[in-house]
Amino acid sequence: MPELPQRKVGIIACSGEELAEGTVTRLAALKVLHSLRPGRTVTICLPLFLAGGEGDRAFARFHPTITVDGCELRCAAHGTERYSGRPTASLVVSDLLAEAGLPAPAGRRRLDEAGQRAVDVTAGRLAQLVDQVLEPIGAAGEPTVDSAPESSDGMAVGMCSCGSGIPVTSVTIDGRTVELLAMSLIFRQFCGSGGRADDPASADRLMDIVKIYNEVPPVAESSYREAILREYITFCAREGVR
After folding, report:
1. How many other CB atoms are found less than 10 A from the CB of residue 114?
2. Is 214 exposed, middle or buried, given 0-12, 13-18 or 19+ CB atoms closer than 10 A?
3. Are 70 and 13 in contact (CB under 8 A)?
4. Dihedral sign from CA coordinates of 26, 30, 33, 37
């Protein structure tokens, strides 16, 4: 039985180049990615994300994200919230340095000593946030995989282009098409464990799992529930499970 892809933390760094703090965000993100938390983090390209990179947006909907901005404009945080939901956590370098009593950095292409110190402080805080975000996920015992999942179950799914192997399923809800993540994998696991759509308690558990990986608007939850249970019943029928 296939398992859900391992969740990592996506770091979305500010792309601003007019301030030294923008350079700090990118260097700090790279330090976390390669040195401090390798294997537990990925970086998401903000310009591609804002331009409509569906793979990056799907990744941010599935995985917890941390945004790191250089200034109070918070471009990365606002862009993430607009296209993929509110980030799990966010940092602003200028605020972080003020709290630590450190001087503002200088040099956009080559940071001064204060800039290098800012990178270290920002990277350290990012690493702490990564640990805080992943700790409850690990404690909950979420399954992981070493390779991309199969998508041969007959569902109308696409595969996210972000390289995470996340299947994306198109579902019609209230007359509009909504993309939901990892549905075929969730259904296969839940079906294999004996989950039943006609049992309210079992259906509640299924929805709880779906909401881990997808944003379900509270005002539309009943419509989402109806559509997801309908898809689940169809999936189980194809799998030969009643």
Report:
1. 16
2. buried
3. no
4. negative
What is the distance between the alpha carbons of residues 12 and 80, in angstroms, rounded to a whole number? 8
Residue with tokens 């309210």: 200
For residue 68, CA distances in Å to 8, 28, 126, 173, 235 come to: 16, 9, 8, 34, 40
Q: What are phi and psi of 241, to 5 degrees?
A: -115, 130
Q: What is the pLDDT of residues 133-146, one digit of tens each?
A: 887 544 333 433 33
Hey, which residues does 11 pair with through a beta bridge?
43, 66
| 1 confidence band (pLDDT: 50, 70, 90) | very low
β-strands 9-13, 65-69 pairing: parallel
Q: SS3 of 226, please? A: helix
Backbone phi, then psi, for 153, in 5-degree steps?
A: -95, 5
Contact status, residue 184 vs residue 155, Cβ threshold 8 Å? yes
The answer to whether residues 179 and 168 touch, using CB atoms and an 8 Å cutoff, is yes
pTM above 0.70, yes or no: no
End-to-end CA distance of the chain: 17
Q: What is the mean pLDDT of the chain?
A: 78
DSSP state of 163: S
- Contact at 8 Å (CB) between 187 and 207? no
* The amino acid at 189: Q
pLDDT above 80: residue 158: no
Q: For residues 140-167, give the mean pLDDT.
A: 41
Looking up tokens 């809800």, which residue turns up?
A: 173
Q: What is the pLDDT of residue 229?
A: 93
